[in-house]
Amino acid sequence: MMDNARAEAEALRNGIVRRMVRLPRNILGGFSRVMNQGIDNLIGIRERTNQNHYNQTPNFHFQQPINQPQIIQEEWAFLANFEQHYGTTHPFFYACRFVDALKIAEDEHKFVFMYLHSPEHPFTPSFCRETLCTEIIVQFLDANFVCWGALANRGEGLQMATTLGVSTFPFCAVVAPSSGDNLAILQQMEGPVSPAELVEILQSTIEQQGLAFGSGKAKQEEKRRVDLRLKEEQDAAYLAALTIDQEKERHKKSSSENKLQKPEKSKQNPVIKQPSKSTVTTSQKAASSGCKKAEETKILIRFPNGERREQSFLCTDKIKDIYKHIDSLGLLGVGNYRLISNFPRKVYGSDQMGMTLKDAGFHPKSSLFLELLD
């Protein structure tokens, strides 16, 4: 406890973070979805939101089964409310618990961009339409942050608003995990800001805090580049050795055929010793293996609930093959969707179905977001 306090005080003195807060225990250990059912002034808001949502199902990207209770899963409540009013063009908000978003950010060496959404605040509509949903903000946030949003009047959003002492809306913060159960608040913005102001604040935060929290990112990136270069060199050496072996095999086969031919019986077909079946099979397998290894393209697919799945394709496969793979998974809640790249943001829809993965710039590896549509 004393070590954490000293570390926090030292960080604040050095200006590394604006402040440190301790995450509520119920957020760390799993949030109870019934914790605020007794708050009378929030029940009416929840019921109105749910009723409006299910009366306008085309504006949301999945429908509740017919015989199931009409309840929005807590992790999806923010997206349901937001997209009902402002559409699907927005930063890629992960529909997951806050601690899961922190873990994703830690794995990707990024900060978390937190947005607490207050639907009834007078500044909210203009901020969402004129700032948060603009193309420059969408692309900048998708490229540099793991975005997490929540309703400020329920669930984890209410808990975070209380913990952070939010006084007005819209509220945004740049946060990072710290020691123990602490959360480092690197930057926070309360009240409306323009797109240019928001980009300037976020860019400045990345530059100032990157040395403190992202010092390992450069090393990780350099290691990734070295590993990739080593793999490419190994693949090239393997293919070169395979080519030499195949050339030796062809030369050996040709010599054997010449020795076994009988000139005095020119009218008869020459006797040729065929290579054994096992030799041909081994050679073919080696050639096939080398081709696949050289052509392999790995695609990391990120889903709105925070799940990530990696799948191997050939670089000659097409965009439509990625869609076929996702459809074959049979994931719940995934109906109409499209694939988008990170930065610069690009949509890969019906017009790009025939494009090969190599032509799309996905070889040897890439990552795509799965964005749900109405």
UniProtKB/TrEMBL annotation:
Query: Where is composition skewed (Basic and acidic residues) in this entry?
Result: 247-267
Which positions fall inside the UBX domain?
292-370
Q: Which UniProt keywords apply?
A: Ubl conjugation pathway
Q: One Pfam annotation, family name?
A: FAF1
In terms of SUPFAM superfamilies, this protein maps to: Thioredoxin-like (SSF52833), Ubiquitin-like (SSF54236)
In this chain, composition skew of type Polar residues spans 268-287
Out of the domains of life, which is the source? Answer: Eukaryota
Q: Does the keyword Repeat apply?
A: no
Instruction: Name the segments for region: Disordered.
Output: 247-288
Give the CDD domains listed for this entry: UAS (cd02958), UBX (cd01767)
Q: What is this protein called?
A: UBX domain-containing protein
Naturally occurring in which organism (per UniProt): Penstemon smallii
The organism's taxonomic lineage, starting at the top: Eukaryota, Viridiplantae, Streptophyta, Embryophyta, Tracheophyta
